[in-house]
Every structure is written in C-alpha cells, then in structure tokens.
Prior knowledge:
Layout: E1 2-6, H1 10-19, E2 26-30, E3 35-37, E4 56-58, E5 67-69, E6 73-76, E7 80-83, E8 87-89, E9 92-95, E10 111-112, H2 117-129, E11 132-136, H3 140-152, E12 156-161, H4 172-184, E13 188-191, E14 195-199, E15 202-205, E16 210-212, E17 215-218, E18 250-251, E19 254-259, H5 272-290, E20 305-308, E21 314-317, E22 322-325, H6 326-342
Parallel strand pairs: 1-2, 1-9, 2-5, 9-19, 10-17, 11-12, 11-17, 12-13
Antiparallel strand pairs: 3-4, 6-7, 7-8, 14-15, 15-16, 18-19, 20-21, 21-22
Amino acid sequence: MRVTILGGGFCGAMVAKNLDDQKDPEVSLIDKNDRFEYYPSLPKLLTEPSHQEKIIKPYSEFLDNTEIITEEVVEITPEYFSTKSKKIPFDISVISIGARYPIYLDDERDVFTISSVKEVKDLSKRIEEADRILIVGGGLIGTETAAELGANTEKEITLVHSHERLIERNSKMASYLAERFLEEKNVKLILDQKVVDRQEKMFKTDDGKELEADICIWSTGLSYDESIFSGFEPSSFADDGSLRVNEHLQVRAHPNVFAGGDITDTDEEKTGHNADSHSKVISENIRRKAKGRSLKNYSRTQFPLLISLGQINGLLSLPKLALPGPVPALIKHLLEKGALLRF
Length: 343
C-alpha cells in the first residue's frame, strides 16, 4: 500500500513520522521545502532572525524510510498528485497544505504575509529600514506580530482590525489584556475598520481614515486554492474552499483521501496543536484502514490558547478568562522546544 502525504507542516510531518518505522505502507512526503518549520514562532523572527535555527528541522533528520519529494504540486486529484515533472499515484493520501492569507489590495507592493521562515527573514530586513509599520488583522498572528514589534523596536506601529476587539474568538478578558499590552508599547489600535485601498504609502480604511506606512504586514482572513484540485466531488468543499471532512478526517465523498490542519473545515482554531491532533487520528486510521478495521473518530477538544506578547510576556487564554505574564511565554517556549524534540 502506498501512502502519499502532501504538505510537511504539523499534520503532514507528524503523519509521516508516525508511519516512518513501518515497511508497509510505503510512504512519500511531498513539500516544496525540505524541512519542517515551527510556524507559531515565526513572529519572533521579525526581531530575532537568528532564532530560525531553533525552529527548523530537515525532514531527512527524522524520516529514515519515507521518500521525500521536494517539488511543488500543480494538481491534486483523488488518485494522484502531479508536480511539474511527474505524476505521483497513491492508494491513500493525506492533504495538509494549510491555508494562505489573501491580500485584498490591487497594489501589493511592500505588503507582506507571515507564512514561512524565508518570508519572515526577508521581512525582518525591511522592518529594519522602515519607520512606520501597518499591521492588518488583529487575530492571533496579527496580535503576536504587533506585540513582538512593539516590545522590541522603536518603530511607529499601527494595527487595524475589522472587529470591535482583538482576538475576538477568545474571551473579553484576553482581548482586554492584549489591547492593554499593545497600548502600553505605543501600538496604535484602530478597531472595527478594514483596510480597503492604498495609494503609494497611504493606506485607506473603509471609514475613510488614511494611514501612512512604509510597509504593511497582512494577517487577516484565510483562503484556499481550489484551482489545483481536479476530480473531486463538489460536496468535498466547504463554501470558503476548505476541504470538508467527516468524523474520521476523510474528505467527504473520497474515503481514500484524508485531510488535516488548516485546510480542513473543522470548527476550531487553526493552530499547530489542533493540526497535531489531526495527525494522530489520521495516522491511526491509515493503519486501521490497511487492516480493514473500523476507523477512529476525531473529537474536537478546546485547549487553552497560548498567545505571545513579545519574548518575555504572554497570555494563557481560557474560555472565560485569561492569565497574563511571563509564565505563558515560558510555557510557549517549552512547547516549541518539545515540538522540535519530538522529531
């Protein structure tokens, strides 16, 4: 049996590792990069680029029996994946290609996202040269980015968020504490507005406010590239383009295709922890499917959320309250070390 995994983030890399010590199935991992990157720590690289060495792990260092294919996939079907050079068939596949931040501006010059080590390293150089930085989006990534820059630079930072409070899917206490921290670091907050246009260095909100910035960091909204999918049933896709999965994390209408991580329509935060939870269920279900056994259900569990506020402060966000201070930052640091050690 041949298992092919597309995407080597939290879910894909862990599925590969979980299956790597078995001769059956034959496993392949496809990713355009040759290494795992611990993306929850990407904002830290904005002010400490050297930290990249601590958050990357080449696949070859923890996958002994897995075929590693470092190519970009141009077509995804229920029977095979295609790169520019070859077609890769499979008996079972795992799709864990994540999501992306779409930039809703006609002029994307000097507008960046935080989605890979390379992108953030390039962005860190631009930050050194910039005086005014605009951050669009006050979810987890935007808030952590603003906190990192506010705590460790003297730049003029503005954060625009389309909701009435930051990290709005968390408790009101967590939002209050995050907002208070950023304001103490002189980050200007503009809430309940969207950035809709720009002309040269002037960005405009839907409320008519004009904001001058040398660079913009875009961290709002998720989108999914349906154009590379072919041969899937329409019922396999949610309205936003994510993959609809059943209780076993199989793509609907295609039982030989599993999906995990940010690409799925699971009703939960898109975090590394949840992607890791997906990997455990998918790995077990691939083993069970090979033996003709009944599959395991994925149960969504709400875990406390750790939010970085600079390098020495953070928030432990619970359903009804939040705990600020250095302890959450320390826990998040230990989780980073633990995740890399697992590989």
